[in-house]
C-alpha cells in the first residue's frame, strides 16, 4: 500500500447522509481536517426515507449474514446508550399461523440453494422457524442494556430511530464543535457540488438553474483545494458521483426502491399499543407496521429494482395498494383504505450491484471500494444501514488512517462518545418528565414546549435555554416550538431553505397540523436570519407546498390549527 504524504489538506467527503456525517465525525476525532459537500441538504437522501429501525436485521439470518447481524446488534445496543434521545427500544411481534411453513424456504436460502418460485406453504414463516431465528438473534444480542426484560412467544426487541435526520444534524454538530476544540478545519457545504480536475477540487454553489444531474453548476466558486483523499459517501448516487468526478469505474451500485406510507388511523394505532409488527406479505417480503411519534403509524416497505434518479423516487399506486392490503391482512380489525394515508415516501437502498435473482438476497454488508484510476486516492462507501453508521465510520476511518498516516496509531474514538443531546440523560420516564418540568419552571416555556424541543435535540435543549439574551415565549404558528428555537436551528444547523426546516430540522412533515401559515412564518424567519429576499422566501414556500403535495402526497391546511 502506498503511503500518502501527511499534511493539513482535508479529506473531502461527498454526501452528508448518515454515513458521510458519521465518517466526518470519526475523522475529526482522529485529527483529520475534513470538508463535507452535499449536492442537496444534509440527510436529504436515503437516510430520510428508511423504515427508521435500528435493528440487527432478523431476516439476514436467513442469508447466513451472521457477522452482519452480530455487528448490527452490537451497534444497536451502543446507540441505545449513546443516543437515547433518538434511539429507543421497540418491541416487535411476528404473527404466524402455522408451525412449519417457511422452514423449507429458509433452509434453502440458508444453504444458498434457491428454488425459483416459493410454494404457498413456504410463504408463512412458521412458528418453529421464527423461534429458531429469535433464539439466534437474542443470543447474539447479549448485553447489559438489552431492552428485553420479558419474553413472549414470537416477539422480540429492537430499536427505533424516529428522526435519523436529527441524528445526522447532531453528528455534524459534534464534528464542527470538536474540530473547533482541536483547532482543525471542518467545513460543511450543503447545496454545493464538487468537481475534480486532476488533483484539484472546485466547490461551487448549486444554483436552481442547473438543469439536470449531469450538467455542472454555474454557481459561484466558494473553494478550491487539493484534498488528501476523497470519500464518495453518496449512497445510491455513488456511480453518478464517480461519473461527475470523471473517475472511471465498473458499476458499483444496484439500488432497490422501498416505499412507505404514514397514517394517523386511530384504530391501527390503538391496535399496536405502542409496539411494532414484523410480518411477511404474500410475496415473502417483510413488512413493518411501526408506531411513529405521537400521531402516526409507519408502514413499509417494498423492494423493487430502481435505476432512475434516487432523489425522484416516489411510491407507485401499486406499491401503496400492496402495503394497504398487507396491513389489512395482518390487522384485519382495522380496515384501512388509500384515503387513510396521510403521506408517503420512497427511498433507494445503496446496495452493491449484483445479478442476484431476488432483491432481498442482496447483501446488506458495507465496505469501502478504492478507485483504481484516480489521481487523488478515492474511496466509495458501498452499502451500509442506519444501524451500522458508527461501525462503518470507524472501519472506514481506520482504513484511511492506514494509508494517510501509516506511522500513527489509530484509536476508535466514537465507541463511548454520546451523540450530542444524549449526555446526562434521564434514566427513566419519571426522571425524564421531571426534567421537562424543571426546565419549564426555569424558563418561559411550558413542559409540552420543552418536550417538543427535546424530541429534536435531547439534553441540548439546555444549551438553547442557556444562550445569552432574553428568550421570547412566542411559538411557531400551529406548533409547540418556540420561534427562538427555530432561529437557533437556522443559525447553528446549516439551514438554507424552508424545506430544510420542514423535512429535516423541525420535522414538521410529521405534524398533522402543518399548514401554509406555518410555512409562510418560516419564510419570514429565513428573511430575518439569512437575509434572503421576500421574493426568494415566497418562492421557497411555494416550492415546499408543491413538493409536499407531489412528492409526499401530503395535504396542508390553509390556516394553522392553534
Ligand atoms: C426503504 C428503505 C428502508 C430502510 N430501512 C432501514 C432501517 O430500518 N434500518 C436501517 O438501519 N437502515 C435502513 N435502510 C438503509 C439506510 O437508510 C441507508 O443505508 C442509509 O440511509 C444510507 O445512508 P448514506 O449516508 O450512505 O446515503 P444517503 O442518506 O442517501 O446520503 C447520500 C447523500 O449524498 C448526496 N449526494 C448525492 N450525489 C452527490 C454528489 N455528487 N456530491 C455531493 N453529494 C451528493 C445526497 O444528496 C445525499 O444527501 C433502509 C433503506 C431504504 C431505502
From TrEMBL:
Its EC number is 1.1.5.3. The keyword tRNA processing does not apply. It holds the Pfam family DAO. InterPro entries: DAO_C_sf (IPR038299), FAD-dep_OxRdtase (IPR006076), FAD/NAD-bd_sf (IPR036188), G3P_DH_FAD-dep (IPR000447). Residues 11-356 form the FAD dependent oxidoreductase domain. Its cofactor is FAD. Keywords: FAD, Flavoprotein, Oxidoreductase. It comes from the Eukaryota. The keyword Flavoprotein applies. Belongs to the FAD-dependent glycerol-3-phosphate dehydrogenase family. This is glycerol-3-phosphate dehydrogenase. It comes from Durusdinium trenchii.
Amino acid at each position: 500500500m502506498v503511503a500518502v504524504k501527511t499534511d493539513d489538506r482535508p479529506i473531502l467527503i461527498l454526501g452528508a447522509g448518515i454515513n458521510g456525517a458519521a465518517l466526518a465525525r470519526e475523522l475529526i476525532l482522529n485529527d483529520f481536517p475534513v470538508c463535507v459537500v452535499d449536492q442537496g441538504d444534509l440527510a436529504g437522501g436515503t437516510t430520510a426515507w428508511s423504515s427508521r429501525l435500528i435493528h440487527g436485521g432478523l431476516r439476514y439470518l436467513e442469508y447466513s449474514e451472521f457477522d452482519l447481524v452480530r455487528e448490527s446488534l452490537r451497534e444497536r445496543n451502543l446507540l441505545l446508550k449513546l443516543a437515547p434521545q433518538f434511539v429507543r427500544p421497540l418491541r416487535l411481534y411476528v404473527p404466524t399461523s402455522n408451525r412449519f411453513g417457511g422452514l423449507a424456504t429458509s433452509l434453502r436460502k440458508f444453504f444458498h440453494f434457491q428454488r425459483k418460485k416459493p410454494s404457498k406453504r413456504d410463504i408463512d414463516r412458521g412458528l418453529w422457524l421464527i423461534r429458531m431465528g429469535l433464539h439466534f438473534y437474542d443470543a447474539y444480542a447479549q448485553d447489559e442494556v438489552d431492552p428485553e426484560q420479558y419474553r413472549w412467544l414470537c416477539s422480540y426487541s429492537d430499536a427505533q430511530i424516529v428522526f435519523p435526520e436529527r441524528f445526522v444534524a447532531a453528528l455534524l454538530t459534534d464534528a464542527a464543535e470538536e474540530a473547533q476544540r482541536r483547532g482543525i478545519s471542518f467545513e460543511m457545504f450543503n447545496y454545493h457540488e464538487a468537481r475534480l480536475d486532476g488533483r484539484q477540487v472546485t466547490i461551487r454553489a448549486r444554483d436552481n438553474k442547473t438543469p439536470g444531474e449531469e450538467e455542472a453548476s454555474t454557481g459561484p466558486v466558494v473553494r478550491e483545494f487539493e484534498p488528501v483523499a476523497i470519500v464518495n459517501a453518496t449512497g445510491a448516487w455513488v456511480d453518478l458521483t464517480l461519473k461527475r468526478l470523471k473517475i472511471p469505474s465498473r458499476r458499483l451500485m444496484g439500488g432497490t426502491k422501498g416505499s412507505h406510507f404514514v397514517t394517523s388511523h386511530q384504530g391501527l394505532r390503538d391496535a399496536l399499543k405502542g409496539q411494532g409488527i414484523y410480518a411477511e406479505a404474500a410475496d415473502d417480503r417483510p413488512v413493518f407496521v411501526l408506531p411513529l411519534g405521537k400521531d402516526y403509524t409507519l408502514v413499509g416497505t417494498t423492494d423493487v429494482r430502481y435505476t432512475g434518479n434516487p432523489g425522484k423516487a416516489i411510491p407507485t399506486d401499486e406499491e401503496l395498494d400492496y402495503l394497504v392490503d398487507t396491513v389489512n391482512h395482518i390487522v384485519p380489525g382495522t380496515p384501512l383504505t388509500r384515503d387513510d394515508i396521510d403521506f408517503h415516501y420512497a427511498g433507494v437502498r445503496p446496495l452493491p450491484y449484483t445479478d442476484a435473482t431476488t432483491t432481498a438476497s442482496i447483501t446488506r454488508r458495507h465496505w469501502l471500494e478504492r478507485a483504481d484510476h484516480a489521481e487523488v486516492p478515492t474511496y466509495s462507501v458501498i452499502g451500509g444501514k442506519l444501524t451500522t453508521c458508527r461501525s462503518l465510520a470507524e472501519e472506514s476511518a481506520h482504513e484511511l488512517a492506514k494509508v494517510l498516516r501509516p506511522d500513527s496509531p489509530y484509536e476508535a474514538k466514537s465507541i463511548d462518545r454520546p451523540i450530542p443531546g444524549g449526555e446526562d440523560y434521564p434514566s427513566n420516564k419519571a426522571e425524564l418528565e421531571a426534567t421537562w418540568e424543571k426546565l419549564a419552571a426555569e424558563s418561559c416555556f411550558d413542559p409540552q414546549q420543552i418536550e417538543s424541543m427535546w424530541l429534536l435535540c435531547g439534553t441540548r435543549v439546555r444549551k438553547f435555554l442557556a444562550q445569552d439574551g432574553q428568550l421570547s415565549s412566542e411559538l411557531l404558528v400551529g406548533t409547540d416550538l418556540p420561534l427562538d428555537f427555530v432561529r437557533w436551528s437556522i443559525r447553528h444547523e446549516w439551514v438554507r431553505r424552508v424545506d430544510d426546516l420542514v423535512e429535516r430540522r423541525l420535522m414538521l412533515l410529521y405534524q398533522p397540523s402543518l399548514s401554509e401559515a406555518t410555512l409562510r412564518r418560516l419564510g419570514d424567519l429565513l428573511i430575518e436570519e439569512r437575509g434572503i429576499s421576500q421574493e426568494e422566501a415566497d418562492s421557497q414556500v411555494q416550492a415546499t407546498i408543491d413538493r409536499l403535495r407531489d412528492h409526499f402526497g401530503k395535504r396542508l391546511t390553509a390556516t394553522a390549527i392553534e
